[in-house]
Amino acid sequence: MGRAKIPRKSTNIDMTAMCDVAFLLLSFFILATKQKPPEAVTVAAPSSVSTKAAPEKSILITLTKEGKTFLMMGDDIKKKDIIAAVNTAKSLGLSDAEVTKISKMPVIGVSLGQLKPLANRADEFSAAQMPGIPAKDSTNNELVDWIRGITTAYAGSELSLNDLQQMILLKGDGDALYPDFKNVKYALKKNGLYKFRIVTNSENAPVGSELYKLNRENPAGKKE
Fold first, then answer.
1. What pLDDT, on the 0 to 100 scale, is given for residue 183?
2. Mutual orientation of helices 178-189 and 143-154 as an angle, nearest 10°?
3. b/e for 163-180, b at 16 or more Cβ within 10 A?
4. Cβ of 70: how many Cβ atoms within 10 Å?
5. pLDDT tens sequence across 184-201
6. For residue 115, which of 103, 123, 38 has the smallest C-alpha distance?
7. Could you tell me which residues are beta bridge partners of residue 111?
8. Strands 168-172 and 197-198
9. In a 3-state reduction of DSSP, which class is residue 71?
10. What are the boundaries of each domain within the chain?
């Protein structure tokens, strides 16, 4: 007796639920992704083969080829505390509203005496218009006061001294002069900070070098 044939039917899969999940995930990643903010001060940094990523909430000191020094504080929570610490230590007379307004500026690039007028300006003051933080010599190096404000703001936090030093980045123009770079080091040293990272533009390791061979053997960058 022959077997009964089962009639074939076309398969119909409802993709509505899967599409909903896909769009929900896409929306989540778009909204949750933190875009890198544009640099307030642009310099032509030298290149290196280092590929180590900088901390997300870092403290960036930028040195232009003209010798101007700028300070960017990536942690918005601590930024107001740093400005308040400098305000107290140097008796600047900034009100809470002025401290808050300065804390919202992307970069600090004026002398301490110009902070109050800057906070009360009606128009925006771009980094290109700023003269930079005075740091030309040891007798007039206001970067010392800013670094002291940073150490004061982070004192008592969970960060160790080494953790704080890992957060400090220095990005200098390739044409910046060494005396200007030395004055930045002086400001850090005066506050007991002897380590920092230098920001460079990434480039490939020279073919045949030890780093090139290491990257070939371990392309994922995994530590042994």
1. 95
2. 40
3. ebbbbbbbbbbeebeeeb
4. 24
5. 999 999 999 999 988 887
6. 103
7. none
8. parallel
9. strand
10. 47-202
